[in-house]
């Protein structure tokens, strides 16, 4: 059963031409009824809306006539605005898929809306807004986080920028190659949006520090501690793996199985281990005495101590130099890889910026932000295009950050 409701309103005495903006007495050209779909909880609902076309009396205006606007109904649309708002909110705010949103409209509101129709609504709504108008309103804290990630259904990576304090995503942009020019273009785009950071946090991708120094010469630079320690653990896992392979080749399977079972406990932070895991570590220190395994445990904690317990940059430098004086780089080539990187003054300076400036966090929030964004990607099996990602981000910023109704 379809319910048909006729909406007929009083014709106003005055109107404003949308082309020239002149307020004038209404001169009716013609009238007609427009049929649009509306939502209803009980049954399918159709609205027959009385539309009035007026003539423009301004002789300088190039538009002969125009239709008087009706609240909740847009030009060329065959559905009310609240249907489109509900569909967009379901996709953007509730992170639902297009098929589920379409089914929800039919099930709950007795109105149809195909996947392609909902996608057109999203694209049309997103085209009304620009990042240059949205980003300045997000309340940037002054600390910028920058990272790259590989989207689903894409052969190239994206750069994603976020606010370290508020965890708000500021901008996403696809880059075809890992070149300096694309990192610089991204930062300049942020600058055009009004983003002037006090500090920038990113990983050790080579173009980052040089382009940041060029675009934001007054900004402080901090290497993300997560990525610093990630590189350290990478080499320590390689060191442990090489020793385990040696045990396997010499047919010491019992020792190999012990390390295989505890390979994650060895890399795990000491304060995060359980009592059972600590008992295993004590057993390993005893069983593998005078091997590289206890050295891995000691070296890892010594490196972490540089960044966690140092009171100042000079204190961090002293702890690093002490590792070099104790010949840790010569104990194993993988230790040497770690110390070679820590001994680079240019990079070590950016690893320890937070020790001189307490307002600068030691680590960024890029991994958390990327995880949030990937949840949106997963609901769509990946965005098909860069425009699709940016359209979704614009609507997400408006609904989640600025609390605006679409």
The gyration radius over C-alpha positions equals 30 Å
- Along the chain, the helix and strand elements come as EEEEEEHHHHEEEHEHEHHHHHHHHHHHH
- With strands numbered from the N-terminus, the spatial order across the biggest sheet is 9-8-7-10-11
Structural class: alpha/beta
User: What distance lies between the first and last C-alpha atoms, to the nearest angstrom?
Assistant: 30 Å
Strand % is 15-25%
Number of strands: 11
Major β-sheet profile: 5 strands, mixed
The outline comes out as: elongated
The amount of helix comes to 40-55%
| Total helical segments | 18
Low-confidence stretches: none
Overall pLDDT, averaged?
A: 91
Describe it.
The structure is a single chain. The longest helix has 25 residues. The relative contact order is 0.11. The chain is 49% helix and 17% strand. The mean pLDDT is 91. With 406 residues, the protein is α/β, with parallel strands linked by helices. A five-stranded mixed beta sheet has the order 9-8-7-10-11, sandwiched between helices. Strands 1, 4, 5 and 6 form a four-stranded mixed beta sheet that branches. Strands 2-3 form a two-stranded antiparallel ribbon.
State the main characteristics.
18 helices; single chain; 4-stranded mixed sheet; alpha/beta; 17% strand; 406 residues; 5-stranded mixed sheet
């Amino acid at each position: 059963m379809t319910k048909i409701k006729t909406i007929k309103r009083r014709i106003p005495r005055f109107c404003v031409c949308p082309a020239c903006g002149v307020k004038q007495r209404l001169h009716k050209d013609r009238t007609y009824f427009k049929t649009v779909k509306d939502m209803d909880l009980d049954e399918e609902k159709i609205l027959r809306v009385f539309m009035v076309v007026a003539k423009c009396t301004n002789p300088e205006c190039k538009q002969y006539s125009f239709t008087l606007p009706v609240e909740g109904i847009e030009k060329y649309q065959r559905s009310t605005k609240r249907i489109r708002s509900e569909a967009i909110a379901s996709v953007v705010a509730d992170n639902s898929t297009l098929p589920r949103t379409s089914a929800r409209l039919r099930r709950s509101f007795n109105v149809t809306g195909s996947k392609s129709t909902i996608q057109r609504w999203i694209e049309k709504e997103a085209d009304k807004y620009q990042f240059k108008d949205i980003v300045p309103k997000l309340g940037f804290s002054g600390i910028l986080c920058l990272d790259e990630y590989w989207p689903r259904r894409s052969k190239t990576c994206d750069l994603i920028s976020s606010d370290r304090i508020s965890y708000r995503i500021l901008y996403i942009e696809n880059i075809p190659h890992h070149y300096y020019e694309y990192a610089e273009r991204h930062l300049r785009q942020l600058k055009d949006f009004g983003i002037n950071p006090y500090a920038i946090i990113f990983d050790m991708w080579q173009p980052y520090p040089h382009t940041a120094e060029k675009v934001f010469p007054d900004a402080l630079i901090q290497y993300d501690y997560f990525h610093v320690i990630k590189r350290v653990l990478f080499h320590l896992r390689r060191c442990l793996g090489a020793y385990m392979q040696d045990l396997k080749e010499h047919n010491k399977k019992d020792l190999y199985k012990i390390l295989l079972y505890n390979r994650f406990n060895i890399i795990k932070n000491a304060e995060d281990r359980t009592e059972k895991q600590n008992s295993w570590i004590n057993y390993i220190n005893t069983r593998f005495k005078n091997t590289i395994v206890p050295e891995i445990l000691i070296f890892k904690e010594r490196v972490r101590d540089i960044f966690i317990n140092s009171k100042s940059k000079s204190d961090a430098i002293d702890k690093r130099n002490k590792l070099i004086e104790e010949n840790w780089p010569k104990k194993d080539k993988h230790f040497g890889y770690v110390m070679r990187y820590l001994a680079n003054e240019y990079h070590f300076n950016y690893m320890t910026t937070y020790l001189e400036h307490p307002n600068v966090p030691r680590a960024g929030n890029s991994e958390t932000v990327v995880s949030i964004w990937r949840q949106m990607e997963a609901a769509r099996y990946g965005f098909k295009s860069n425009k699709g990602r940016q359209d979704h981000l614009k609507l997400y910023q408006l609904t989640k950050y600025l609390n605006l109704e679409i």
